[in-house]
């Protein structure tokens, strides 16, 4: 009971070209076998199960079921052919078999074979006919038809009547295949003999066994009315558009009767031969206007045959036939029916990947039912025709989820009617991400600042990298790149949080040891394989004022005799230079010098930035021979740090005095005043000895002095001074760095008349 068509593949994979056809009796029990789909597809039950075979019905209801294990197509729910298709033949239940991996579609249809499950039924169980007694034998009378919803041989086949003396029945066939009964008068009636004739009529179908229905016919014999109505046409053919509104006039039938009076008055009616006609049309009993009771639908029925009866006042009647052709109008928009949809698609899918399979159906006919299909908007998809009204939505180019995460693909179907009607369906296609993008840092170099000696754990800043991928492919993790062997291990100073990218210090830094450090950071995503990017993290240590100024050696107060200044030194005379350095940088290392304390504050001054100690005025005899200076060296940090230098300055006026100063270390005595008193006592004792012996040695001393003067004048050169030039000394002065070297250079000059004084003055050679 089944016929399987040849199955051919089209160029585009996924859809079968021909339709497989099967058949099954209507109202077959649930589970009834229809066909073996697997055998027709050339597949095994295991392959059907692996490829997730399923049925997609054309309508909303699923009447059939596929057994994936055996490949059998069975009845899921009983199907009534008359309920599904009415009088239409053949009655087809269409569906598609969808297979996945790869995606394929297989069209099939099951024809419902009619069974004789309905008996003919008369609309009225009692039919009353009025006939004049003057009716001649052979007169034909139209009878009400019985209704049998079955089709083919199971439909109504013939009529029969019970035995009587006056009538015969003939079965007639209409153009649409329906059968109706005509009652033929076989013997003249005589009202005076029999006023009413009663018999039964039976309608029999052609089923096995046959079914039948009966009705009672009562023929009332009327008094003579020798003229029957006559229609102007025995057949009226008209056409009506299906979009005609209710009460639209279809046709006007007209009949006339030669009789007069009530016997000539005609009443029109629609003969009860079809319940559908009575529900669709109505007739004005006086004018014969036939109007619509409801709108027509070409897609449901294309032709109506109406039997109109005209009856005069005497009970005589005649009938005519009205054929109504329904004209199709474009009143049905196309339908887009999705049979398979892949709602998620990898962005790496190649072109021509099948996204969806769908059909387009239009219930209209002719040009009104011809459709075309297209996509709206510019999108990376296209439509491929697979078979008549069957399409596939495929990709037309490579996809990129980072440019567009999802697409609303609108499929529009348009018919060729006038005006054209269209329908559309929007498919949501989401793209699945693949790891095709590496993370990107927002900066190539991140510069972060931290203060030196700052405790560990402080947040220095945050790294930021973005990845346009999604999910794990966009999850960025940060890490420090190990430095080359032998370089500073920056990982011991800073750390990077793998998830947030927050940079923290691991331990305090000393600006004087590490002013800046650089490390390479990597951002890697969570894809497989992971992709990464690198950036440079530069940590700049901000100097803090944590180092006090330091005096460079030798300290000014560490020499044996301190600084020697001649009594004749003018204002601005360079006494000494204090040199200090600060290990800090910037403002924290800017040093200033000032005189914090002095024996005579007005005698000396200190250069603010040079640290040079100079005389503020000329030295006088009243100035103390011993001067003590305290120089304060201060930086500009916040808070400032400082150091003091103590200078011992001796004011001298001859060589003896300088020698005496050189022989006594001021630094060795705790109290300079005590040293001066001891020296004064020595002078007094020496003076007393000299006075006591002066008288005894006066003559000898005078004579010796005179002889010595004469000899010295003869031996000395001219009175011009003789000095040692700077070039006679090695370069032990101020170094290139501006600091004092450990050695000092002194210039000594002798003049004529130096016999009275070994050293007129002594001063250091300073820049």
Automatic annotation (TrEMBL):
Offer one Pfam family short name for this entry: Cadherin_2
What keywords tag this UniProt record? Calcium, Cell adhesion, Cell membrane, Glycoprotein, Membrane, Repeat, Signal, Transmembrane, Transmembrane helix
Give the superkingdom in one word: Eukaryota
Task: Please give the CDD domains that the UniProt record associates with this protein.
Answer: Cadherin_repeat (cd11304)
Q: What is its main location?
A: membrane
Offer one example of a GO biological process linked to this entry. Answer: homophilic cell adhesion via plasma membrane adhesion molecules
Q: Which organism is it from?
A: Toxostoma redivivum (California thrasher)
Instruction: Name it.
Output: PCDBG protein
| Gene3D superfamilies according to UniProt | Cadherins
The molecular function GO annotations come to: calcium ion binding
InterPro entries assigned to the protein according to its UniProt record, in alphabetical order: Cadherin-like_dom, Cadherin-like_sf, Cadherin_C, Cadherin_CS, Cadherin_N, Protocadherin/Cadherin-CA
Which residue ranges run through the membrane? 680-703
Q: Where is the Cadherin domain?
A: 16-122, 123-231, 232-336, 337-441, 442-551, 565-668
Q: Name one GO cellular component term.
A: plasma membrane
Q: What does this protein do?
A: Potential calcium-dependent cell-adhesion protein. May be involved in the establishment and maintenance of specific neuronal connections in the brain.
Mode of membrane association: Single-pass type I membrane protein
* PANTHER family from the UniProt entry: CADHERIN-87A, PROTOCADHERIN BETA-1
Q: Where in the cell is it found?
A: Cell membrane
Where is the signal peptide, in residue numbers? 1-17
């Amino acid at each position: 009971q089944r016929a399987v068509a040849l199955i051919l593949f089209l160029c585009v994979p996924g859809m079968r070209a021909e339709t497989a056809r099967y058949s099954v009796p209507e109202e077959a029990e649930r589970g009834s076998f229809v066909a073996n789909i697997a055998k027709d597809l050339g597949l095994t039950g295991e392959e059907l199960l692996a490829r997730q075979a399923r049925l997609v019905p054309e309508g909303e209801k699923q009447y059939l079921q596929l057994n994936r294990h055996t490949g059998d197509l069975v009845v899921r729910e009983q199907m009534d052919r008359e309920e599904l298709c009415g009088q239409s033949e053949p009655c087809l239940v269409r569906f598609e078999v969808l297979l996945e991996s790869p995606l394929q579609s297989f069209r099939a249809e099951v024809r419902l074979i009619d069974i004789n499950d309905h008996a003919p039924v008369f609309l009225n169980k009692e039919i009353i006919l009025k006939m004049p007694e003057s009716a001649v034998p052979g007169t034909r009378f139209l009878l009400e038809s019985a209704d049998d919803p079955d089709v083919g041989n199971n439909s109504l086949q013939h009529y029969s009547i019970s035995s009587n003396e006056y009538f015969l029945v003939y079965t007639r066939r209409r153009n649409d295949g329906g059968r109706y009964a005509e009652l033929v008068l076989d013997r003249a009636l005589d009202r005076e003999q029999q006023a009413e004739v009663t018999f039964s009529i039976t309608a029999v179908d052609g089923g096995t066994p046959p079914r039948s229905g009966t009705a009672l016919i009562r023929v009332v014999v009327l008094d003579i009315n020798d003229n029957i109505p006559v229609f102007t046409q025995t057949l009226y053919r008209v056409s009506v558009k299906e979009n005609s509104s209710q009460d639209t006039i279809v046709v006007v039938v007209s009949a006339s009767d030669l009789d007069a009076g009530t016997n000539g008055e005609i009443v029109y009616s629609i003969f009860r031969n079809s319940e559908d006609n009575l529900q669709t049309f109505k007739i004005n009993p006086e004018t014969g206007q036939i109007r619509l009771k409801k709108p027509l639908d070409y897609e449901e029925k294309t032709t109506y045959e109406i039997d109109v009866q005209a009856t005069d006042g005497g009970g005589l009647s005649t009938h005519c036939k009205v054929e109504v052709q329904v004209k199709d109008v474009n009143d049905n928009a196309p339908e887009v029916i999705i049979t398979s949809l892949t709602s998620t698609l990898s962005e790496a899918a190649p072109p021509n990947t099948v996204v969806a399979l769908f059909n387009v159906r239009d219930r209209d006919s002719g040009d009104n039912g011809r459709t075309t299909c297209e996509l709206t908007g510019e999108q990376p998809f296209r439509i491929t025709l697979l078979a008549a009204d069957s399409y596939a939505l495929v990709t037309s180019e490579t996809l990129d989820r980072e440019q567009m995460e999802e697409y609303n693909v609108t499929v529009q179907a348009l018919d060729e009617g006038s005006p054209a009607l269209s329908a559309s369906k929007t498919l949501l296609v989401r793209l699945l991400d693949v790891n095709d993008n590496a993370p990107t840092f927002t900066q190539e170099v991140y510069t972060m600042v931290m203060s030196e000696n700052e405790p560990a754990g402080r947040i220095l800043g945050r790294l930021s990298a973005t990845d346009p991928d999604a999910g794990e492919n966009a999850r960025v993790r940060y890490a420090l790149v190990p430095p080359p062997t032998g370089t500073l291990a920056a990982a011991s100073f800073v750390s990077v949080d793998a998830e947030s990218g927050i940079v923290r210090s691991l331990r305090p830094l000393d600006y004087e040891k590490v002013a800046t450090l650089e490390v390479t950071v990597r951002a890697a995503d969570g894809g497989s394989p992971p992709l990464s990017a690198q950036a440079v993290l530069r940590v700049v240590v901000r100097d803090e004022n944590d180092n006090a100024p330091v005096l460079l050696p030798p300290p000014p107060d560490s020499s044996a005799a301190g600084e020697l200044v001649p009594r004749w030194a003018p204002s601005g005379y360079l006494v000494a230079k204090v040199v200090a350095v600060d290990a800090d940088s910037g403002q924290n290392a800017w040093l200033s010098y000032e005189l914090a304390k002095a024996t005579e504050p007005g005698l000396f001054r200190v250069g603010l930035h040079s640290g040079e100690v100079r005389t503020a005025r000329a030295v006088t005899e009243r100035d103390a021979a011993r001067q003590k200076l305290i120089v304060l060296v201060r930086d500009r940090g916040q808070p400032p740090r400082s150091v003091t230098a103590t200078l011992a300055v001796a004011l001298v006026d001859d060589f003896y005095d300088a020698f005496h100063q050189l022989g006594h270390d001021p630094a060795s005595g705790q109290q300079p005043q005590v040293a001066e008193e001891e020296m004064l006592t020595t002078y007094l004792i020496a003076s007393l000895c000299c006075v006591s012996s002066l008288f005894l040695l006066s003559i000898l001393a005078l004579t010796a002095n005179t002889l010595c003067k004469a000899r010295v004048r003869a031996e000395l050169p001219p009175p011009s001074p003789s000095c040692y030039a700077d070039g006679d000394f090695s370069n032990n002065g101020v170094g290139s760095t501006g600091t004092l070297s450990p050695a000092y250079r002194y210039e000594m000059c002798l003049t004529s008349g130096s016999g009275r004084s070994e050293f007129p003055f002594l001063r250091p050679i300073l820049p």
